[in-house]
Give the backbone structure.
Amino acid sequence: MGQTAFALAPPWQVSQWFNSERALSPADFRGRVIAMHAFQMLCPGCVQLGLPQASRIARLFDPAHVAVVGLHTVFEHHQAMTPVALEAFIHEYQLTFPIGVDTPGESGPIPRTMVAYGMQGTPTLVLIDRQGRLRKQSFGAEDDMRVGSDIAFLLAEPERSAAP
Amino acid sequence: MGQTAFALAPPWQVSQWFNSERALSPADFRGRVIAMHAFQMLCPGCVQLGLPQASRIARLFDPAHVAVVGLHTVFEHHQAMTPVALEAFIHEYQLTFPIGVDTPGESGPIPRTMVAYGMQGTPTLVLIDRQGRLRKQSFGAEDDMRVGSDIAFLLAEPERSAAP
Amino acid sequence: MGQTAFALAPPWQVSQWFNSERALSPADFRGRVIAMHAFQMLCPGCVQLGLPQASRIARLFDPAHVAVVGLHTVFEHHQAMTPVALEAFIHEYQLTFPIGVDTPGESGPIPRTMVAYGMQGTPTLVLIDRQGRLRKQSFGAEDDMRVGSDIAFLLAEPERSAAP
Amino acid sequence: MGQTAFALAPPWQVSQWFNSERALSPADFRGRVIAMHAFQMLCPGCVQLGLPQASRIARLFDPAHVAVVGLHTVFEHHQAMTPVALEAFIHEYQLTFPIGVDTPGESGPIPRTMVAYGMQGTPTLVLIDRQGRLRKQSFGAEDDMRVGSDIAFLLAEPERSAAP
């Protein structure tokens, strides 16, 4: 089977990180699969389904192989979902994985990383492979069995694809 | 059985109302049972259990007989749970019953109505009878069957107890 | 308000009782509200919703005031849902309230008590008041809040209605 | 990494099949991963968790790659869980994957395939790889994400491991 050309995942444009002492980029996790959960703290589907699923991913898989990263992609109610509010939310919901605040857009309501990934809304789950390539992006809730399977397939790939 | 002396429910000290064009007080609902749900928008137990239960109360019982009222009793993370944030929350979670913002305390973090009722935290469910008397106050999640039963017992009481 | 004429609940025609050392009839519970749950052990809606709800009724309400009774109304798969199979089912599902086997019909698949009550299928919840009168009969799953409310209204009625 | 020596999955000793016109053996599914769910029709954990999960496996994965097979391993209440009762159960619960009746033991209550696999009880999930080897056997409920991941890892293996 030939090598399909998957594009590298766009960088994260983050103005502030929680649960991490330093700025993070997809490149920091090279060699690991990244499960990135894009959410808004006042989005019911994120609170009820997406974030609990992200926490289950973090509990099930060995962090040496799978990194869970949250991205707060505020595209509505900007005055309500400030970083101060997000900090309280993270505390109350006891989220422990790194969460970045997507940098507000320059000329519109959609923040920059959300634009770069072409996300349609929240929640969105993004899977990035060990080589930093964007492999899956799904808008809306997905069931746990599929997510577990999708991550396992990426983990089962050789860390480096055969060089030419 | 003699008449037990139940106290009148304390008035609500509310700085702002949502889903109501005018200020509300327990006296406005005399003749009806009031189910008052005290919550904080970033309290997981409120979002996952308490508020959905309040909505189920509003759907099950005839509004001519049972009034559901929310009270946003912010006693922590005050900067995060502002009225602006609450408005977005109400919109996103599609809450349609009247919700009042409990007036901040003068000398401490606990808002005034929460102090007046002696609430221990959120979520708290308060039941007020047709005569405006405080009949039940419970902190934490209660199952639906008990809540349905508690409300029905108040509805079954004669609207006016025998006068002296 | 005048006295509405509610009919007495038909007697139970039961060929065998479990969780009871003697035969039971509605009259045995006079003075109490009866929540009778009609089910079939291989009916998914009964196993998943109806029977757990019957157990919650038994836990919530004081048995001095509310009696929970099961009725195994087999109207299909008669060879599969025998009393021997029911006994194992009751053991495995840890049901502790009295359960009667509805007596098979003489000339058709519908058992006799099911016919007498005019039940449409399983699960069916029947509520009988303190005076032994049939007050509610609902086919299919009902939510807990409504059931709790319905039982409470019957409990709130005077034990004996005004005599003529 | 050297080839770990996984044993072939023991054959199924089945007295009767449902949802299959002919007898099945693990060898019939060579090249596919098999998810075998061992259950008893009156085991609450099987009805509430195990069988719904087996149905989700059957829905999620392509049947050309993953076969779901049920095994009715009756080790208690034998008179209640007869093939006649199982047939009604399969009909009522709308199970569509092949289900075999584990052949009763000769000298004890444990049926033969259950003995051959050394199962501790029900529900038990068994995963067999594309080469027919027993790769996982777990007693009790497992969460969907782990099961999805476990199956995907087996699917990701080369169909034939390197020959010696």
Summary: Strands of chain C lie at 14-18, 33-39, 66-72, 99-102, 124-128, 134-139. The longest helix of chain C spans residues 44-60.
